[in-house]
Amino acid sequence: MSVTELETKEIQLDAPTGLWRDAWQRLIRNPAAIIGLVLVSLFVLTALFADVIAPYDPRDSDLSRLEGSCCPGPSSEYWFGVDDVGRDQFSRVVYGARFSLLIGVVAVTVGVTFGVLLGSISGYLGGATDTLIMRLMDIMLSIPGLLMAIGIAAMLGPGLLSVMIAVGVVNIPIFARLLRGSVLGQKHNDFVLAARAVGVPRRTILFSHILPNAISPVIVAGTLALATAIIDAAGLGFLGLGPQDPSTPEWGTMLTNTVRYLQTAPHLAIIPGLAIVVSVLGFNLIGDGLREALDPKLRGRT
Amino acid sequence: MLRFVVRRLLLLVPILLGLSILVFLWVRALPGDPAAALLGERATAESIEQVREQYGLDRPIHIQYLAYLRLVVVDRNLGTSIESRRPITEEISRRFPATVELAVASLIFATVFGIPLGFFAAKRYGGFFDNASLVGSLLGISIPIFFLALILKWIFAVELGLFPTIGRQSVEINVDHPTNFYVLDAIIALDPVAFSDALWHLVLPAIALGSIPLAIIARITRAAVLDVQNEDYVRTARAKGLASSVVDRRHVFRNAMLPVVTIIGLQTGLLLSGAILTETVFAIPGMGSWLAEAIEASDYPVLQGGILFVAVIFVLVNLLVDIAYALVDPRVRLS
Asked: Which of B18, B138, B145 sits opposite A135 (nearest CB)?
């Protein structure tokens, strides 16, 4: 067995498990993080089992449900009431979780993938590549987030996919900077020097030695980015850049389409709004808890 | 100090150039012919030809870019709005003050409430007030601005009638608008009714837009005060018998304000982004609602010019924040 293999094994066996077990212990002792875990589990389970939970088809509009008025409030038959075209609001909110989760996960995946790639290349190679990538990131950061998302979504044409890509691209520079800093900090560590000394290829050093050690800030930032992604996507939906088919049960779009009933049937706008708040709050609570749990300065103080 | 400023100004050049390239390419990436995109559906063959000529669309792309750069930098021409048929720079001079006014009001709201909130949370570390403010600030960053704006408008303006629902001033107010900052205009006109009316219109939008900065400022203040409280010089000050309020004011508060000042400066991007949503909800005729309308109308010249303008403002404000920070904290100048 070569030195490098030993090295890889040791990092994988030792550092991560210790760190993660430690972090987990601290996370589950933090009441705020537990509330976050509960909220997010609720949100993810709702999204996964939407077809089981929802009593009706979210797109099925039946004007007879309106009973001649707009719009009937919560009842035993329709828990969250009926919307302006006779769709069951509860089923729509439940399916909305699926869309929000999808948007959040895809957007953050886009941001993390490209951000991690660009940031680690930038930090590891240094020199002209670093300058070029980082200046590009600076330019992207010089446009306020939502404005850039609007530009991208307008360029791609409104729709669910555009919203996901737009929100994801906005996240790229954030992760790129994070990773670059992290890689720069580790580049001169002993284990990296050792791996280089025995001739491990640069790519292997970056991907199997440096990146695994840079992952914890990415997880924290990723959790918080999920929260922002859901809010930003709802904002784009509110501005009319979301799904163009109004029957799509996306929370931001649902809210926009029912704002005019705020005085007569406030539940139509308030319930999807609260759904956004609750899911975003969940991710923020977990993100905060993770940040504290993974903070090396606090390690060992369980 | 001068060297620091010059270096930062030089760093600005590639960013601004990159920004202009990005915005320039953006129009070319739009679906369809760029001339048609810039003119909208009502374009005639004649006007398309004119735009082709003006932007040099029949020439190679780098020449086109230089033509665009000259148009923007030398002629200060950002194009014409498809919807209003007015020059974009003219619209900006009317609308930008509204956004600045709203952003400043939001920042004042966030600072005036955020700093004391964070300070007292730190003073009662781990207590009820501390936990309540932590939960409150997390809630603050978890509520979409447009949702908060809608709820505030619905409860306080529509249902309770305490505040105006839309716009910047009531119809019966009649003052000149030399600056387009309505609060300032009322002061210039020495009209107390117009002054309170303009302020009254700002309250709800400022609370909605200021909610996230408020949460962030409170959290940073709390963290900074907790940090400073454990410093040796604070312990020394207490040990030599200084009154607790004097230590808080002279030693803790002053030193804790450094990171807070930076964070306040960093809210610009958030405020400019949030203004798009807040202005739309309250129908405030600023930059934000203008861009939102431009999306709906596919008014691409407005989006192009507006995004470029807002981004340049954002970059410049960040530069000013950096310089201000270097003035306050000499250590920054050296790094």
From this structure: B18
Amino acid (one-letter) located at B138: L
Residue A133, CB half-sphere, CA atoms under 13 Å: how many?
25
ipTM, interface predicted TM-score of the complex: 0.84
Say which amino acid occupies A72. Answer: P
Give the pLDDT score at A302: 36
Tokens 């923007």 locate to: B72
Q: Does A181 touch chain B (CB under 8 A)?
A: no
Instruction: Identify the residue whose tokens are 């086109």.
Output: B64
Pairwise CB contact (< 8 Å): A147 & B147: no
Q: Which of B99, B143, B146, B155 has the highest number of chain A CBs within 10 A, making it the mutation to test binding with A? A: B146
Amino acid at B161: G
Q: Is there a contact between B277 and A146 if contact means CB atoms under 8 Å apart? A: yes
Task: Pick from B16, B24, B142 the residue to mutate for testing the A interface (most A CBs within 10 Å).
Answer: B142
In the DSSP assignment, the letter for residue B136 is: H
Largest CA distance in chain B: 83
Integer Cα distance of B255 and B216 in angstroms:
18
User: What SS3 state is found at B326?
Assistant: helix
Contact at CB, B150 and A241, closer than 8 angstroms: no
- A142 within 8 A of A203, measured Cβ to Cβ: no
Three-state DSSP state, B80: strand
DSSP secondary structure of A113-153: HHHHHHHHHHHHH-HHHHHHHHHHHHHHHTS-HHHHHHHHH
Q: Which residue matches tokens 């709050």?
A: A281
Q: Residues 6 or more apart from A197 whose CB is under 8 A from it? A: none
Of A138, A144, A262, the CB nearest to B150: A262
Cβ contact, residue pair A262, B274, below 8 Å: no
User: Quick check: pTM over 0.80?
Assistant: yes
- pLDDT tens figures, A36-63: 999 999 999 998 988 888 787 877 777 7
For residue A143, which residues of chain B lie inside 8 Å, CB to CB?
Answer: 19, 22, 307, 310-311, 314
Q: What would the DSSP string read from start to end of B94-130?
A: HHHHHHHHHHHHHHHHHHHHHHHHHHHHHHTTTSHHH
In the structure encoding, which two tokens stand for residue B257, read together? Answer: 């304000």
Cβ of A234 under 8 Å from any chain B Cβ? Answer: yes
Cβ(B152)–Cβ(B204) below 8 Å: yes
**Is A146 close to B30, i.e. CB distance below 8 A?**
no
- Residue A288, chain B, CB below 8 Å: the answer is yes
Per-residue pLDDT of B157-193, as tens digits, reads: 988 989 888 888 888 878 888 888 888 888 888 888 8
**Structure token digits, residue B8:** 């930062």
* Residue B205 CB coordination number (10 Å): 28
Distance (Å) from the C-alpha of residue A90 to the closest C-alpha of chain B? 19
Nearest 5°: CA angle at B133, between A101 and B314? 65
